[in-house]
Structure formats: structure tokens, C-alpha cells
Design a protein that fits this description.
The chain is α+β, with helices and mostly antiparallel strands and 134 residues long. The protein has one domain. Helix content is 40%, strand content 24%. It has helices at 13-20, 23-40, 66-70, 76-79, 115-132, and strands at residues 5-8, 50-54, 57-62, 89-96, 100-108. It starts with a strand and ends with a helix.
Length: 134
Amino acid sequence: MGEWRAEDSGDGAFERFYRKLPEYEQAVLAAAIEHVLERLGPDICRTEWGKALGSGLYEFRVRRSLHAIVAADSHMAAASAMPDRQVLLRVFCTFRGDRIVLLLGGYNKGRDPSAKRQQREIRAARRRLAASRH
């Protein structure tokens, strides 16, 4: 486990997004959260994995295969039974004082890469972020 702990924001938006993903995308996202997001926290923005969107909102960019994410990890044996292909997912989050990553939602950018969809998802994440502060 990393230095940060990822949690759903409480409104279930992230959980709904995650459960709608196909099994492979779920595995990739779970590995990316564990091996990257929970280890780097806001430092994801110093890498290709993250972007600060302003006002405390961050975008976690997952665009690798499962094998690429966990290659150096002992879970590789379990992952090798799955097909290996790159995915394109976006997760919106914020970081809280007790080293908590609050997951605000996400979407499968590989299925809908349009700028219109991206902006709609960012607006929804901003609303969830504002609600989480109250």
C-alpha cells in the first residue's frame, strides 16, 4: 500500500463508474490506483499520470495496460491470465489532509474521447468536489 489512501467521495459516483467498466478496465484502474495514485498522491502532476485542473480538482490519467502498470509487482502472475491492452480512463479526484485521495468520478475516454464529454465530466467532478466540502 502507498502513502495515500483512495476513498470514494461518498456519493457513489466513482463506485458507479468503476462497476460499469469491463473486468479488464476494472483491473487496470485498480492497479493504477494502488501502484501509482496511492503512492504519488498529488505528485502525479509531476508525471504523465496527472493534471491539476484548478481549485483542488485533479485528473488522474490512466493510459497503459495492466502489465505495464504492475510489471515489477508480485501480482503479475495473476494479471498474466488477462489479455493485455492499453486503456484510456480518466478519474477525477482531490487530496485531503490525512493523506486521503477522494475519488470524485471518472469516465472511459477510450469510448468517448470528445472534448464535450471531457468538459461535462469535469463540471460534474467540480460539483461533487464542492458538495464534498460541505
